[in-house]
Specification:
four-stranded mixed sheet; ten-stranded mixed sheet; alpha/beta; binds magnesium ion; binds 6-O-phosphoryl inosine monophosphate; globular; 463 residues; Adenylosuccinate Synthetase, subunit A, domain 2; 2 domains; Adenylosuccinate Synthetase, Chain A, domain 3; 20 strands; binds guanosine-5'-diphosphate
Length: 463
């Protein structure tokens, strides 16, 4: 009989007959929930400033986790005038007391991960001892070089066949999550188990892609040599992610923080499909990406840039293809951290923030980049959508409908003064305070922080 055999072992048979050996009237106590986890999520199309908010909260955290996405994310954090860029590593790793955990929902390109860590290590002291502070779930899927090459080919095909691509980051995100769903992907546990078997499965997968995309160039032996080199390096970091998370949730009170990547409007289910990423960047992805029950979710902080940006293709109702958009782009230095592309810019759209709140249940908001609006004499805020002259009470799923939406704006007076030195709410000009209160009232969620600059210090805390 095989080791996993069909016959119930004798001990289990006896236990089930006697109800597990205890008194038939005794029930197990209701399990304790354990520690609550604080979650930080993007509420727009990404680049809201999640990294900065996580860095701030990480000052007081023991563990910072990434639960989904890959190195398509780009989080900039400025500490002591040093600008760190994170893609796969949780930004909270800058705090030397923090353990960083990459959960099963994340897809990992190993060379990318090590390059990122080493590049940041050269910039400043923030990454000290990172190899000993990084834990990786054995269930996380591996992004291979060919996934990235396939991402590129698929984008080219979309362009050739349909006249437009998705504008992906070409980090292999779509292909690797597709392989995961098709059950042909390879995980960190496979890499560490038996390299010969891993190599065979790698070659089968590579061949499948080669058959689908004949022009694809794959250096199989070269990549396998590189991956073998990573085995010894990552071995001390890899854990059974579910067990690790359970211990963290139920051990001595730990402050656990989850750093969302990408954002609500890029979510595979709730985003502006098909112009989205390939994972769940809303609150559900926290549980599935870490192996954590929903009862452990505590505060969910939504990060909202006080205007809107988007990288890549797709409908953007409040976009300003004019001098306002250009001013937001230049003042906000709206340039992608991962791809270097210019971000499209527009007014704040509260219809989509409310939509993100419906999905995520934000307990508070962190507003960022208020200082960028300092020069405007009037500021518009999208408060409703009309389609065919009818106000619609929801955020439309269909992209053609979203393209046709007419945004209804409220115009608020600007403050025309520098907010970057403000360190408390009352130090903000009256019209800036009114702008914040307007957002709070309209979304129905309290604002806890307001960002007026890049640095950790330039975050005003309201309560
Ligand atoms: P993330 O992907 O959500 O972490 O955001 P990014 O790091 O991609 O983009 C946000 C950019 O805005 C970064 O360059 C931050 O340093 C910067 N930033 C964050 N908050 C503020 C703020 O309050 N004011 C200004 N001027 N810049 C900010
Ligand atoms: P952070 O965490 C902004 C966008 C890409 C593209 C689409 C699909 O920095 O906020 P993908 O490579 O994921 O298949 O690309 O999603 N995108 C982001 N845009 N910020 C991000 O992350 C993004 N992650 C993905 O530009 O339009
Ligand atoms: Mg970003």
């Amino acid at each position: 009989m095989s080791k996993s055999g069909c016959q119930e072992p004798a001990a289990t048979q006896a236990a089930s007959r006697t109800g597990g050996g205890g008194s038939p009237t005794q029930r197990a106590p209701i399990p304790s929930v354990g520690n609550r986890v604080t979650v930080v999520l993007g509420a727009q199309w990404g680049d809201e400033g999640k990294g900065k908010v996580v860095d701030l909260l990480a000052q007081d955290a023991d563990m910072v986790c990434r639960c989904q996405g890959g190195n398509n994310a780009g989080h900039t954090v400025v500490v002591d005038s040093v600008e760190y860029d994170f893609h796969l590593l949780p930004s909270g790793i800058i705090n030397p007391k923090v353990t960083a955990f990459i959960g099963n929902g994340v897809v990992i390109h190993l060379p990318g991960l090590f390059d990122e860590a080493e590049m940041n290590e050269r910039k400043g002291n923030g990454l000290k001892g990172w190899e000993k502070r990084l834990i990786i779930s054995d269930r996380a899927h591996i992004v291979f070089d060919f996934h990235q090459a396939v991402d590129d080919i698929q984008e080219q095909q979309r362009q050739d066949q349909a006249g437009k691509n998705l504008g992906t980051t070409k980090k292999g995100i779509g292909p690797v999550y597709s392989a995961k769903a098709a059950r042909s992907g390879l995980r960190i546990c496979d890499l560490l188990a038996d390299f010969t078997k891993f190599s065979e499965r790698y070659k089968v997968l590579a061949q499948q892609y080669k058959s689908t995309y004949p022009t694809l160039k794959i250096d199989k032996e070269g990549e396998l040599v590189k991956l073998k080199d990573y085995v010894e390096r990552i071995k001390p970091m890899v854990r059974d992610g579910v067990h690790y998370m359970y211990e963290a949730l139920h051990g001595p009170t730990k402050k656990i923080l989850v750093e969302g990547a990408n954002a609500a409007l890029l979510d595979i289910d709730f985003g502006t499909y098909p112009f989205v990423t390939s994972s769940n960047c809303t609150v559900g992805g926290v549980c599935t990406g870490l192996g954590m029950p929903p009862q452990n979710v505590g505060d969910v902080f939504g990060v909202v840039k006080v205007y809107t940006t988007r990288v890549g293709i797709g409908a953007f109702p409040s976009e300003q293809c004019n001098e306002i958009g250009e001013l937001l782009q230049t003042r906000g230095k709206e340039m992608g951290v991962t791809t270097g592309r210019k971000r499209r810019c527009g007014w704040l759209d509260l219809v989509l923030i409310k939509y993100a709140h419906m999905i995520n249940g934000f307990t508070a908001l962190a507003l960022t980049k208020l200082d960028i609006l300092d020069v405007f004499s009037e500021i518009k805020v999208g408060v409703a959508y009309k389609v065919d002259n009818q106000t619609i009470p929801y955020f439309p799923a269909n992209q053609e409908v979203l393209q046709r939406v007419e945004v209804q704006y409220e115009t608020l007076p600007g403050w025309k003064s520098d907010t970057s030195a403000a360190r408390s709410f009352k130090e903000l000009p009256e019209n800036a305070q009114k702008y914040v209160r307007f957002i709070e009232e309209h979304v129905g969620v309290p604002v806890k922080w307001i960002g007026v600059g890049k640095s950790r210090e330039s975050m005003i805390q309201l309560f």
